[in-house]
Design a protein that fits this description.
globular; Jelly Rolls; 10-stranded antiparallel β-sheet; mainly beta; Tachylectin-2, Chain A
C-alpha cells in the first residue's frame, strides 16, 4: 500500500466515524467524509454489491480524486470500506478518475479507471493527459498493474483528443472477451464513444467508434455505459454543455439515453430513439450492473455540476448517489423503478382512497415524514372539466417547502425547491412533459432526508432532486385549483 493511500485511509477512518448516522441519508450512499461525485465500479462480486465513487476525503469540494468504496447485500444498507485507490503513481498523479469493475476469470476483481497526468506545452503551460489504467484485488485491497497505463493516445482513432479520453465502462461479452466503452472528443469538439476489446482485461485493442455525437447533444460525452436490454441496445451517457430541446433536455450538464440496435459487422450503434434519463435537477454519470437474478440496475450521482452551490456549509460530507433503479425498455423508452428491495423497508402503511380536493389545500392524518415511500394517483372529478393545477408539497413547515406541480391541460410536471432553504440562486426548478393520459397521473415519491425522487407513470420518467431543508420540516400537503380526486398510500421507510 502506498503512503498516499495509507494516509487517505487513516484520515477517513478518523473523520468519517465522527459523522452521526442521522446526519446522513438513511439509505442513499454518501461519502464517508468529504466530497463525492461519479459512481465507479458498480458491480456484483463475491456475494456483495460493490460501489466505488470519485472521492476527495480531505474536503467537501472537488480535488485530488481517489476512489471511495462501499459494499451492500441489498443495495440499500451500505458498509463503508477503506478507500480503494489514491493518485500515487506518475501516470495518475493528477487523479484516479472514473471507471468500472469486473471479475476476472481467475476470481480477482479488476478496476479500470482513467489516469490523469500533466503535459507541459511549449509556452510553459500545462494540460491534462488522460489514459486508462487497471488495478486488481480481492474486493478490499487493490494493486495497480505494473504495465499501466493500458490505453494511451496511441490507441485512439485519428483526430481523437488525448485530453478528453475518459470513463471506461467494462463488461464481458457473450464471446467470453472483455469489452469497454470510453468517452472521447473528436476533432469537431463534439462527443463520441469508443469501443475496445481485450482477451484478458489487460491488453486492449481499438474496435470502433460505437456512436458519434456530431454536435447534436451537447459536447463531450462523459461516463458512457452500453448494454443489451429487452431486445435492444442502450447507450447511456452524460453530455456536457447541453442545449434544451423543448422539455426533453435541460441546459448544462445533462443525461442522455440512446436506444437502438447494434451492427455486428461495423460495431456501431444504429440509433432509433433518444430521451433524457432524468428530468429533475440532480442526476449525472449513470452506471449500471447486471445483478445475479438478471436485473439491470442503475445508479447515478444525485448532484449536478451546475448546482454545487446548493450545499450545507457546515456539513463534513457533500453529495450522494441516487436510489438504485431497475431499468427496462418498453415501447422504445427507458423505464426506471426503485429496486424491489426497497419494499422490505416499508412499514406503517396509511391509505386514503377517492379523496376529493376542490380549490383548497389539505393535509391528511399520518401523511408526513422525510423517509417516506408515497404513492399517488390524481384524477379529475369530472373528466369533461380538468382541474387547472395539482400541487404536492413536501419537506414542509411554516417556513420551508418543496413542490411538485402538475398542469393537466399542458401535461407538464414541475419540481420546485426554491423554498427549501437555499442561500444561493442555483437551479431550483425543472419541468418535463408527461406522456400518456392526463386524466390520470401516477406518482411514486421516495423521500430520504436529503433528497426526493419522483417516478412518473410507473417509471416512464423520473425526476431527482437534492433537498437540504432542515429535518424538522416533515409536512406533506395537497392543493388543487379546480376539483380533483386522489388516492394516497404512504409507507415509512425503516
Amino acid at each position: 500500500m502506498s503512503e498516499m493511500l495509507e494516509k487517505a485511509r487513516k484520515y477517513e477512518d478518523e473523520q468519517g466515524k465522527q459523522i452521526k448516522a442521522e446526519d446522513r441519508p438513511a439509505f442513499h450512499v454518501s461519502p464517508y467524509v468529504g466530497w463525492m461525485n461519479d459512481p465507479n465500479g458498480f458491480s456484483y462480486y463475491q456475494g456483495e454489491y460493490h460501489l466505488f465513487y470519485q472521492y476527495n476525503p480531505y474536503d467537501t469540494h472537488w480535488d485530488s480524486m481517489h476512489w471511495g468504496h462501499v459494499v451492500s447485500k441489498d443495495l440499500l444498507h451500505w458498509e463503508y470500506l477503506p478507500a480503494a485507490l489514491a493518485p500515487d503513481e506518475d501516470y495518475d498523479k493528477m487523479g484516479c478518475f472514473s471507471g468500472s469493475a469486473i471479475e476476472l476469470d481467475d476470481g480477482r476483481q479488476l478496476l479500470m479507471y482513467t489516469a490523469v497526468d500533466h503535459e507541459t506545452l511549449e509556452d510553459g503551460s500545462k494540460r491534462d493527459i488522460q489514459t486508462q489504467a487497471v488495478a486488481v484485488g480481492d474486493g478490499r485491497d487493490y494493486v495497480k498493474y505494473e504495465k499501466n497505463p493500458v490505453l494511451t493516445e496511441k490507441d485512439l482513432p485519428e483526430g481523437a483528443s488525448k485530453v478528453d479520453f475518459r470513463d471506461p465502462k467494462i463488461w464481458k461479452g457473450k464471446d467470453g472477451k472483455f469489452y469497454c466503452v470510453i468517452g472521447s472528443r473528436p476533432a469537431d469538439g463534439s462527443g463520441q464513444i469508443l469501443l475496445y476489446r481485450s482477451e484478458n482485461g489487460f491488453d486492449w485493442k481499438f474496435v470502433s467508434i460505437l456512436a458519434e455525437n456530431k454536435k447534436r447533444f451537447g459536447k463531450m460525452w462523459e461516463c458512457p455505459d452500453f448494454f443489451e436490454l429487452d431486445g435492444k441496445y442502450v447507450l447511456l451517457t452524460s453530455p456536457q454543455d447541453m442545449i434544451p430541446e423543448g422539455m426533453e433536455y435541460h441546459n448544462g450538464n445533462g443525461t442522455l439515453c440512446i436506444i437502438g440496435d447494434l451492427d455486428s459487422e461495423t460495431h456501431t450503434l444504429k440509433e432509433q430513439s433518444y430521451q433524457s434519463v432524468d428530468y429533475g435537477i440532480d442526476c449525472y454519470a449513470m452506471q449500471t450492473l447486471l445483478a445475479p437474478d438478471g436485473r439491470r440496475i442503475m445508479i447515478a450521482w444525485m448532484q449536478n455540476w451546475d448546482t454545487l452551490a446548493y450545499r450545507r456549509n457546515e456539513s463534513k460530507w457533500f453529495a450522494q448517489m441516487s436510489l438504485p433503479r431497475e431499468v427496462s425498455v418498453k415501447n422504445g423508452r427507458l423505464y426506471q423503478v426503485p429496486v424491489r428491495e426497497l419494499d422490505s423497508m416499508r412499514a406503517n402503511k396509511v391509505e386514503y382512497r377517492d379523496v376529493v380536493i376542490k380549490d383548497t389545500r389539505i393535509t391528511l392524518d399520518q401523511i408526513e415524514g422525510r423517509t417516506v415511500d408515497l404513492e399517488l394517483v390524481i384524477r379529475p372529478v369530472d373528466k369533461d372539466k380538468l382541474y387547472k393545477k395539482f400541487e404536492l408539497c413536501f419537506a414542509e413547515n411554516e417556513k420551508y417547502h418543496s413542490t411538485l406541480r402538475f398542469r393537466p391541460d399542458e401535461s407538464v410536471l414541475k419540481i420546485d425547491r426554491s423554498f427549501s432553504g437555499s442561500e444561493r440562486a442555483v437551479v431550483h426548478q425543472r419541468e418535463c412533459l408527461v406522456n400518456g393520459d392526463c386524466n390520470e397521473l401516477k406518482l411514486r415519491v421516495i423521500l430520504d432526508r436529503f433528497s426526493a425522487e419522483i417516478f412518473i407513470n410507473d417509471g416512464e420518467q423520473v425526476m431527482s432532486a437534492v433537498i437540504l431543508t432542515e429535518q424538522a420540516a416533515k409536512g406533506i400537503s395537497f392543493f388543487v385549483d379546480g376539483a380533483a380526486k386522489i388516492d394516497v398510500v404512504k409507507y415509512d421507510l425503516v
